[in-house]
Amino acid sequence: MSTITIYHNPNCGTSRNTLGLIRNAGIEPTVIEYLKTPPSRDALADLIQRAGLTVRQALREKGTPFMELGLDNTALTDAQLLDAAQEHPILMNRPFVVTPLGVRLCRPSEMVLDILQQAQQGPFTKEDGEAVIDERGQRVR
């Protein structure tokens, strides 16, 4: 059983790049496609809290019903925002990654490197062509 879990959306380039970086460290994580299997409300609240985010920071606006649902209303409570995310899992920003070193919302994808214990095993280039890891397994920048 993996000690690393990624809440993944295979249609998201950032999520695919994050998964690629985890695998580039020689790890096969537990992959949860959160649109098919969303975390419970309590689990989502826990992920957000452990990542050091507010509920609002963990919501995605682009490509979601965020505006249509009026979630830009700053008077909405965290509970109301969590309810909306439960009803519409696409509102959950991605990817969240859980490791023994912590929880991160990995945007950009290389944020995952801060919570991986294992070193990168070789070069890694994002889908957009940006080099992240060199041939020695070191961060490019």
What would you say this structure looks like, in words?
With 141 residues, this protein is an alpha+beta fold. The protein has a single domain (5-133), classed as Glutaredoxin. It contains three helices and six strands; from the N terminus they run E-H-E-H-H-E-E-E-E. The longest helix has 12 residues, at 13-24. The chain starts with a strand and ends in an 8-residue tail after the last strand. 32% of the residues are buried. The model has no long low-confidence stretch (mean pLDDT 96).
Largest sheet: spatial strand order: 2-1-3-4
- Please bin the fraction of helical residues: 10-25%
Shape: elongated
Measured between the Cα atoms of the first and last residue, the distance is 32 Å
Q: Write out the CATH superfamily name.
A: Glutaredoxin
Q: Which regions are unreliable across 5 or more consecutive residues at pLDDT < 50?
A: none
- Rg on CA atoms, Å: 16 Å
Number of domains: 1
- Supply the helix-strand structural class: alpha+beta
Order of helices and strands: EHEHHEEEE
CATH architectural grouping: 3-Layer(aba) Sandwich
Q: State the major sheet.
A: 4 strands, mixed
Provide the residue-averaged pLDDT: 96
**What CATH first level would be assigned?**
Alpha Beta
Q: Care to count the β-strands?
A: 6
- DSSP strand (E) fraction? 5-15%
Contiguous helical run count: 3
